[in-house]
Prior knowledge:
6 helices
Amino acid sequence: FPNRLDRDRFEKMKHYAREGIVWAEIGNEPNLDIEWSGPKEFVSWQNPECIRVLAEAWLADSEEALNFGARPAYYAMAPVDWGDGRPHPQLSGTKFNEKFWQYIAADAGRRNRALSIFKRGGWVAVHVAVYEFPLDFEPFPQGRGWDKCLRAYEIPMHHIKQNLGLTAGVDYAILSTESGVFTPESHSIGGHERLPNDDTHAALMVKMFDWLEANSP
């Protein structure tokens, strides 16, 4: 970001699609400033220009990917919101989702393009993970997004439903393309309770997949 995908990316999609490999992530965690070139302060959910650039790139790249036979994903956000400090004042994935879909829905042309993308095979990628919370931990406690929990996939679902009227698992597919249970030694678990050992980690991993199979779309 902020640039659209290079031509060679679409050429690769075309070749993959010819072989029946059609699921394509066309961007990664745009709520992190490390995924952008240019000034770090530009990347903020409070910056309307950042949201505009992101949404317009997604619309254009998704339409082009579909024309090459690929099924493009809406971007997975990195989980950053938890505790009393949420939403993160700059990088909140919850607020990026909210502002992104509000921008799409604010214009009939953009909204119709997004609806067409999902109708033609667009889907939603998510990066959810288990921290120290129960698997069914509510992702909107007190009405504020808490995305460092397994049910964080409901955050983009909520904003897409609110702005486009679409339902995950019915109108579009939702897939977790990067997720799991953080290992006892993982740096990503900083500030959270760490698992005591690898056996506990393994058991929770199996429990997580069983729970998702039974409860998620």
